[in-house]
Amino acid sequence: MDERAALLPDAATRSRAGSSGSISRISRFGDDVESEGIKPSGDSISNIPQLLVPWHKRSISAQVERPGEIGHRKTATDIGGYRSTQAGSHQRARSFVEFPDGRVSDLTPLEMGRQELYEDIPFVAVSGLQKKEHSLSVAFSSFASAIDVLEQEKHLASTGRGMKPEEKEKRLSQMSLLLLDELEADAITVTTPLIFAVLIASLLMFNAGYNISVMNAPEPYVFPGHSTLSWSIANGSAFCVGGPVGASLAGKWADDRGRRGALLLATWLFIIGGIIQSLAPSMLVITVTRVIIGLASAASTVLVPIYLGELAPPNLRGIIGTMTQFALVLGILFADIVGFPLANEKTWRWMFFLTTVIASLQLLLTPFLLESPRWLLGRNPKSWKARFIIKKLRGFRYDEEVETEVEFFLSAAKTQSIDGDSSRSQGKDKSNPVNEMFADKSVRLLVVSTLVLQAGQQLGGINAVFYYSGLFFDGIVDNPLVGTTIIGFINVLATFVALLLMDKCGRRTLIMWSAGGMFLSCIVIVMSLLGYFSSNYVALLGVGCYVSFFAIGLGPIPFLIIAEMFDGKYVTSAMSVSQQVNWSCNFLVGLLFPYLNKNLGAYSFAPFAVVLLFVFAYAWALLPETAGTTPAELQTQLIEKNKNNVYHNMDIQQMSNAPPSHDEWVSALAVIESEGKPSKVLA
């Protein structure tokens, strides 16, 4: 059976949903409505709720101004005997929802689903978010199709016909599949401006990854005779000193200069830092430039997910987050590869100058870098620039499509903060969202879990490998750079495997496998260095396993669970605090590992093993599994969220068939305007 059909609720679930009040208050537009859809006339239109009349009056004036732009593009594709909508003509069938506060929505079922995605999927591009995106699409498709069937059944009962159980089941399945196909069309529909934005922003992540590992290969040739202290400060500690500063400043830059302006500022920091580092006359200057580059790298890891998350439609944020994650690990691998021709006493400076080359390439492409429409709308909901950018990003042809998308952004702003942009721009006071998050007892366990995982990610020692693998492999393999490059390749491959596992396994399960696997790998590394195995290459194998287990759990999940488990209003605050903890722990590892390696020798990975054992125990005992990500859980949330709404003409089949003509709508709406009679609310 098709996965989507298998995830539909059973009859008992639908019965409970129908009796809950959320989808039982429904209506068609009058007795003359046939099962095929709406046939507007004076009699049927007169039964539209009175609350809809002001909307219709506005619609008439809008249609007079732009008679050719009354709806969305549609063509038809056969799916199970019904019709599916894609690009083509631009009319649409009307559905209506009355909200308890008196608002009325005139969105189609497809648009209602996209609005739910906008409100529930955070505006960050994070690897692994695809599971929640798909589950929410499945949940809404099932939810909307249940309303469709109940409306159809109620209407046919009023005519004395009724629906057989097999007819209801068939329509439920077909309508759910049809709507799900429409909702997930965003995941396969990309525009050229969005592709350019992803590629340009990904260069920042690539540069950040490159600078994580660039100091590794040339260590013997950079000012020979340097002390262990000076190198550990320059390589890891100075880079990580800039990290918390960059993570803190990134939010302010993004608010004040816009997302695009903040990305450009990070690009210039890479350019300046790369130039100075390549010309450095001493270790002191290299140390200072590592602070600058660390600041740019940390700012990039904060800005890029936010920027791309605000540009991409909800169903693409997980995929795009995956691409940026790959850009980071490819940057680490690239630093290892270029070490073969450039890591020597004559050309080591060119390795540092490549930071400037990569950033300059990005700078040349910035004319194609669009501003975030979410940031623009946060400052001015009437922004025409935001509407122009949305039209380019989504490939829209009609103004109504753009305005509908704007409404999605604005409705999401009510449930997900926009970093305080609009509040500051309007001079309003705003409480500290970080303090609110820590004071909220309902998310306290999530906050503690996030901090434990962020600390465990770094104190587990992963960056000791990427910062100092050359130092560690010295004496273990003939050429330490070969060992470092092998680990870089393993890191890329393990990242790909992690993508497959994250769609199939729970987050808590992956954290336990990751921490447990890394713990055992540390034991193997220590035993190998103590001589328990005949070959030192077992230590190389142990490090490879260590990196692989990191990639499937402790690598991506500490940030992913923030996007999945926190309410939208806390996502930005949780990300900010997490970045501070992450970079602070990164600083400790970067500073201390050379001393651990020097003084503990074969036991240098033992402290990391202790941390990983603690993380495993915490995950086993206290870490909650990611909640609300299965279709059944999300559908329950949808029912609870919408239980007081009244739905009118929630007809998915009509959405996908040719809608009423423009003339029919104008004629029907004119009847309302001329009669001016109160209309009866159907329930």
Structure description:
With 683 residues, the protein is mostly helical. It has helices at 3-6, 11-19, 42-45, 53-65, 109-120, 130-158, 165-183, 192-213, 228-278, 283-311, 317-342, 348-364, 373-379, 384-394, 399-415, 421-425, 433-439, 444-459, 462-473, 480-502, 507-529, 537-552, 557-565, 568-600, 606-621, 631-641, 652-656, 662-675, and strands at 26-27, 74-79, 82-89, 96-98, 104-105, 646-648. The strands form two sheets. A four-stranded mixed beta sheet has the order 1-6-4-5. Strands 2-3 form a two-stranded antiparallel ribbon. Helix 18 packs parallel to helix 24 and helix 21 packs antiparallel against helix 25. The two termini are 36 Å apart.
